[in-house]
Write a sequence for this structure.
């Protein structure tokens, strides 16, 4: 008889919740309060449920995924990816009035044996110096700022000029933010860069990387920071440089 994976996973979750309720002697009034709180998601903006799931569970999905991979570490995608961003070759479009610190993002796309993967497609995106993403704020309605798509050449290398992203808060006026506050936690995410790499014959690679000594690395509200994803700045011609090499797993 074929295993019912939905039953197996969901029932294990139910059992885990029941064990927590017994362990902490949850009262009926607390149970009813939790019901009422969950109901507030019904009248909240549509992004609130995905936001809450991302904050509490997305990084764990990638931790589980990495038990089956040999390549570079994957990590949370986040809600601000835009597939219709412009193709770029040397730099991401930035807002000059934001006065961001220049940042060179460079690296190479390879298989797990270190061979370049020509024809791979790399998406990179990040916040502006105010912590906002193009396409998700009023002053950057288009999807062509601080993001781009790179077609990886024969040698697997890429090099882009952009600006340094900064820490920012997730939307925290809705149920997710209310829950974080009740838990005694803040809504801040540390500064980071986002990447997605696609290549024929290889598993999709989704990740974020963080910066050494970045504020909120130790208290990220999404608990997504991993030691292997923290990078040091290098320097070239007075500009900060982050080098990120990708090792992709074959399907």
């Amino acid at each position: 008889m074929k295993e019912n994976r939905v039953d197996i996973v969901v029932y294990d979750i139910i059992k885990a919740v029941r064990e927590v309720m017994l362990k902490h002697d949850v009262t009926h009034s607390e149970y009813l309060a939790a019901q009422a709180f969950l109901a507030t998601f019904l009248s909240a903006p549509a992004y609130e449920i995905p936001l809450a799931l991302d904050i509490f569970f997305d990084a764990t999905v990638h931790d589980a995924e990495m038990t089956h991979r040999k390549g570079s570490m994957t990590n949370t995608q986040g809600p601000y990816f835009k597939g219709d961003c412009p193709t770029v070759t040397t730099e991401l479009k930035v807002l000059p009035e934001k006065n961001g610190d220049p940042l060179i993002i460079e690296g190479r796309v390879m298989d797990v044996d270190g061979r370049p993967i020509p024809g791979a497609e790399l998406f990179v995106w990040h916040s502006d110096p105010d912590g906002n993403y193009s396409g998700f704020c009023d002053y950057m309605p288009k999807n062509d700022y601080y993001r781009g798509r790179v077609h990886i050449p024969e040698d697997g290398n890429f090099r882009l000029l952009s600006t340094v992203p900064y820490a920012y808060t997730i939307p925290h006026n809705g149920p997710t933010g209310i829950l974080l506050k009740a838990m005694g936690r803040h809504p801040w995410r540390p500064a980071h860069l986002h990447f997605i790499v696609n290549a024929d014959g290889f598993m999709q690679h989704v990740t974020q990387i963080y910066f050494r000594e970045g504020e909120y690395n130790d208290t990220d509200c999404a608990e997504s920071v991993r030691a292997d994803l923290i990078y040091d700045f290098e320097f070239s011609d007075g500009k900060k440089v982050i080098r990120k090499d990708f090792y992709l797993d074959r399907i």
